[in-house]
Amino acid sequence: MSIKELDSQYIAHTYGRYPIVLKQGCGALLFDEDGKRYIDMGSGIGVSAFGSCDKEWVEAVTAQLNTLQHTSNLYYTEPCARLAEILCKRTGFKKVFFSNSGAESNECAIKAARKYGSDNYGNKRTKILTLVNSFHGRTITTLAATGQAVFHKDFLPLTSGFDYVEANNIDDLVEKTNGGDVIAIMFETIQGEGGVMPLTKEFVAKINEIAVRDDVLMIVDEVQTGNGRTGSLFGYMNYGIKPDIVTTAKGLGGGLPIGATLLGEKVENVFVPGSHGSTFGGNPVCAAGAVSVIERIDDVLLADVKRKSEYIFKSLEGAKGVKSVSGMGLMIGIETERKNTDILAEAREKGVLALSAKTKVRLLPPLNITDELLAEAIDILKEIIAK
Ligand SMILES: *Cc1c(COP(=O)(O)O)cnc(C)c1O
């Protein structure tokens, strides 16, 4: 049987895969089983921060792989301790909990918020507000946090205690925080799966005001926006706020599964031995990969992300067939006159792998994509969008 046939016979049908078997990669290039070349404008949904087979990352990971692979959290190991130190020093957060995915990093944030509420307010403040059109993961609780009914409908009942505020609607935010029962507000600064929709500065400022005034925890889901993706180390830094909890995953491991929940002053000590855990969390190999990723996301790299972003905006804004361009850094949504799925299919034919987000074409290229490959991909996309 071919790989496609094996896959569809033996793997649960949860994915609508594109009809390509990828075999190899090199930087921002990917090759399928027939050797066809593609420019990677998706980086495995914002995961391969430095593309495929990045030399520095492979060296960091294999050095650890050849030393010690797994210990469980019963023991101390260096890579996760170093990673936590770097994350805290670069952000001002106090503690980190490591897990293995975005959903788990959000589960931890939700547990931390519930525990903070329980410690400080008994059972009086349990509600967590999230935003309509948000995406926080696929577990039953992070689905409940996800403000999109389409994801809920076949899996009821979900975890209770969530309510949804319309993004960028300050009146709705004020109304839903008036009851005195809210312990946390959780949001993405740019709704990724929701269509690459950035929150307005005014709306985020209002969340911040309410959070500070009413002791409501501000949880920012940076699973997609984190780790340099928006041109800042984390997306919240573009808004001048200081969240209580930040979650991240995707780009952090550079291609290996790792999630992190960053805990600020208010919540740094909510967890005690036994309140939370993960067998794989902080795995030395994944943590070594993440250390090498985070250490490279410096001001020079971030400036380069911003420069490439400007290039993309300049090339696409006002171009034929483009209705609008949204996003920040190398997290970009393109609203097109033509159907996005048609554009993506034609782009694959022409050797460009991009993503969708709702009705948009979404671009999440490796942060270090070369100017030449970026220009080549944008030219191809422009031509298809203009048809
Ligand atoms: C991808 C994503 C998640 C879920 O991450 P998984 O690793 O698939 O569990 C959660 N939140 C946001 C904002 C995401 O983009």
Ligand types: pyridoxal-5'-phosphate
Tell me, what's the shape?
Answer: globular
Total strands: the figure is: 17
State the distance separating the first and last CA atoms. 38 Å
Offer a quick outline of the entry.
The protein is built from 13 helices and 17 strands. It has 387 residues and is an alpha/beta fold.
Structural overview:
This protein has about 375 residues and is an alpha/beta fold. The chain is about 35% helix and about 20% strand. It starts with a helix and ends with a helix. About 50% of the residues are buried. Pyridoxal-5'-phosphate (PLP) binds next to helix 5.
Show the helix and strand layout:
Elements: H1 3-10, E1 22-26, E2 29-32, E3 37-40, H2 43-46, H3 55-65, H4 78-91, E4 95-99, H5 102-121, E5 127-131, H6 140-145, H7 149-152, E6 162-165, H8 170-176, E7 182-187, E8 190-191, E9 197-198, H9 201-214, E10 217-221, E11 245-248, E12 259-263, H10 284-296, H11 299-316, E13 322-328, E14 331-336, H12 340-349, E15 352-353, E16 355-357, E17 360-363, H13 371-386
Parallel strand pairs: 3-15, 5-6, 5-7, 7-10, 10-11
Antiparallel strand pairs: 1-2, 2-3, 4-12, 8-9, 11-12, 13-14, 14-17, 16-17
Helix pairs in contact: 3-10, 4-10, 11-13
This protein binds pyridoxal-5'-phosphate.
